Amino acid sequence: MSYFDNIRTFVRVYELGNMSAAARDQRISAAVASSRISQLEDYLNVRLFQRTTRQLHPTEQGDIFYGGARKILEAIDEAEAAVSSITQNPRGTIFVAAPLGVGRRLIAPHVPEFKKEYPLIDVRLRLSDRKLDLTAEGLDIAFFLGVPQDSNLRIRKIADCPRVLATSKAYLEEYGTPASPDELTGGRHACLNLRYPGAPEFQWPLQVDDGVRRLAVKGPFESDDGDVLTRWALDGHGIVLKPVFDIADHLQSGALLPILTDTPPVPIQMACLYSHRRHQDPKTRLFIDFMAQKISEALVQLNAL
């Protein structure tokens, strides 16, 4: 099995371009990852990477070996999935990604229940509000909000999530309550935006009488963490656009107050992405089906608060 471990480590080092990142991904130390690559190079009698103090680049032999190694690992994964399907005893590890709010509120609470029902499947949940690359990150499934740009992956829609513009009572007392969408674009109000490196210019789409109006909003604060934006809004620093489920407790308690309810934000799609190959894996299908049901049930309750 050690040879296949070496191959798996090589593939992750190649895809991530960094020994330490690959080691974290494999849950091993950087020293072990480096040792596995060295063992593989010794066995093949070639140099797979050119190493400097700061950078790691695959050699021509490394590029060639990656193509074949990736196919080998995919064949092994498919064979294991086929056996699991026949035995009706799915096993293995599934890597799942989700935005912070979705993961914390809608997925993480149900992972223990999934594990109890399928004890041979381990779940690795990675939460981030930045855009993730399934292949580069070694993911099986990525839950997301919005419309994905990658058409090479399969998409399963789960639900349309109502959204709301909200802020605190303290903010409204200091800056006034906006009476129309126009007041959000004149610089009078602080709009708190979710933004991460490479993100497109942010617009807030509101439902108006003649369709959808997209507002180019700005504010003094931005973050790549949606929960940080919620905290700022709670502390009276601005207005947030959020899925209702994400701030349902704060809306129910009155800590956050909805505004411009006659022109609410357009609902946002919640779905999950996975590759065509991954869908053949029973544990992937089981996790998607399980979470789709749990998320749909939770959204009904949270949106009603």
Secondary structure elements and their pairing?
Blueprint: H1 2-16, H2 19-26, H3 30-44, E1 49-51, E2 56-58, H4 60-87, E3 92-98, H5 100-107, H6 111-117, E4 121-127, H7 134-137, E5 141-145, E6 154-161, E7 163-167, H8 169-175, E8 193-194, E9 204-208, E10 211-215, E11 222-223, H9 226-234, E12 240-243, H10 248-253, E13 257-259, E14 268-274, H11 282-303
Parallel strand pairs: 3-4, 3-5, 8-11
Antiparallel strand pairs: 1-2, 5-14, 6-14, 7-12, 7-13, 9-10
Helix pairs in contact: 1-2, 1-3, 1-4, 2-3
How would you describe the overall organization of this protein?
It is a single chain. The chain is built from eleven helices and 14 strands. The termini are far apart. By secondary structure, it is α/β, with parallel strands linked by helices.
Largest sheet, spatial ordering of strands: 4-3-5-14-6
The number of helical runs is: 11
Percent strand: 15-25%
**SSE series:** HHHEEHEHHEHEEEHEEEEHEHEEH
According to DSSP, the number of beta strands is 14
The rounded distance between the terminal residues' Cα atoms is 52 Å
What is the approximate shape? Answer: elongated
Largest sheet: 5 strands, mixed
Structural class, by secondary structure, is alpha/beta
| Uncertain parts | none
Rg, nearest Å: 23 Å
Helix content: 40-55%
